[in-house]
Amino acid sequence: MSSTTAARTEPRSVARAALWLRAAFVLAVLVLWEVLAEVGVVDEEFASRPSAVFQALGHLAVDSQALGAAGETMAAFLTAFAIGTGAGIVTGVVFGLNRLLRDAYFPIVMVLMVVPKSVFLPLLVLFFGLGATAGIAFGVLLAFVHVTVNVVAGLDLVEQKFYDVGRAYGARPTRLFLDVILPGAAPGIFAGIWHGIRNGFVGVVIAQLFVSTNGIGYLVRLYSNNFQIDNAMALTLAMAALVILTGSLWSRLESHLTRWRD
Amino acid sequence: MSLLTVDNLTVKYGVDTKDELLACHEIDLTIEGGEFVTIIGPSGCGKSTLLHTMGGLISPTDGAVRFDGVPVTKPNPRNAAFVFQDYSLFPWKSVEENAGMGLRFAGASKAEAMSQAKTQLEFVGLKDFGERYPRALSGGMQQRVAIARALALEPKLLLMDEPFGALDEQTRRNLGTDLSRILGEAGQAVVMITHSLDEAIFWADRIVVMSARPGRIAEEITVETPRPRQLEFMTTKRFQDLRVHLFEQLEVHQRDAAERDASSSAAVV
Ligand SMILES: Nc1ncnc2c1ncn2[C@@H]1O[C@H](COP(=O)(O)OP(=O)(O)OP(=O)(O)O)[C@@H](O)[C@H]1O
Ligand SMILES: [Mg+2]
């Protein structure tokens, strides 16, 4: 790593201090919560307590129903992510390259972007029923919209001067696409893929939480309705951890792939 | 036969719109093989437009550009290769890939492009920097890469649009003396736009002075002193006389432009 990088990014010591502060805060919240539950200020019936949640996490880790649900959610997420992101990248690239198609259809995507997408949930249930498909469809919808918008923005950021060089040296469209447009738009495309991961997951889980009868989301709903708050919270915690882990893995991969930037 | 001829060239932007603008007006110019021609003129007078038309990036509204007698209709980098003012290196490609990119675009195989890139990088004095990314290079070094990218096509003509415009005085001068050797050895004809009087004289076999927009050729001056020249050339009487003459010419054209702009805005009011 070059010295300029070190100068621009925050010093290691600051990053470490921030991590400690964050950990201390989370720990303080957990301790406070535990104490309040212990002395009865917080009703354990509705809010559980950290020790119970961690215990529940241990049980659920070997519980076949929970593991099955996790598998269902994972499969639905991967499907939704793959379809939504793939379609979004292709659509975004087409919009980025073709003025007519962009003017014709991009406004529709923008409308989908601004309306609360949950209004489509009942429709999707009517279409696909209460099974896994509705959840996947909702994840696809969310991922597609966000990926498309980001990829279009990425292509817009490719500077005119790079196209000029291509033209001056007689580049054919495929060469121009592979060597100039794709790498030039990479920041936007990577941002798009991350939005695809996040929104694919959010879409699948929301659908499972509110309408479907499968996956982790459904299980959280079930536990909540049965006042098994510790179980519900344990699942929520596990999902949050998974998302955080995926996010940090992704940002590592991304900075490796765009290491020419800094 | 001349290498390149510009014949009664007129270029307009936005033809048949209310923003129609006459950028170049009835320009005649010839470039001989191996010749170094500099173009100087007031800002906005149509220098870049002329250069881009010579290289096939812009189509003439009227008149013609011929290379080896054949009308130029689109860029052909093996005839005339561009070096842009802002380097225009691809930040996501290594220096070596950048140097080979012109050839790649022109249809050469990856192997051929890379081996030429290595040769040209060595030629411009950057052989140890091939693995780096452009951001790690100074402006002067980046411009050398852009020149290597153009030279890799072994073009008969280099078209350079203010190639040193973004560099400081010292870097310009060093790069300048280096490049006069490099380009002398490579044997290309060069057309170079510059805003620097010193550069315009120091480099040129011939200086083309353009008038304010719409750009016409106001004067062509031949500089007989053989190239490559030593820096001492800049202290000779011939150089100083030329410098004073060019300075006065540009003043006149600049004043013309200012007066015309003033009267046209007065007319609008
Ligand atoms: N793509 C374009 N569309 C419309 N007008 C343009 C375009 N490019 C240039 N012009 C106009 O044409 C005129 C000549 O521009 P050109 O860039 O050729 O000038 P120049 O001599 O290179 O100026 P400079 O010294 O500032 O680089 C200017 O008035 C400019 O505003
Ligand atoms: Mg210009």
From TrEMBL, chain A:
InterPro entries for the chain: MetI-like (IPR000515), MetI-like_sf (IPR035906)
Chief location of this protein within or outside the cell: membrane
Coiled coil: none
Alphabetized UniProt keyword annotations: Cell membrane, Membrane, Transmembrane, Transmembrane helix, Transport
Membrane topology: Multi-pass membrane protein
This protein's record includes keyword NAD: no
UniProt subcellular location: Cell membrane
Gene3D superfamilies associated with the record: MetI-like
ABC transmembrane type-1 domain: residues covered: 70-250
GO CC annotations on file: plasma membrane
Keyword Cell membrane included in the entry's annotation: yes
GO BP: transmembrane transport
Family in the record: Belongs to the binding-protein-dependent transport system permease family.
Protein name: ABC transporter permease subunit
Source species of the chain: Jiangella asiatica
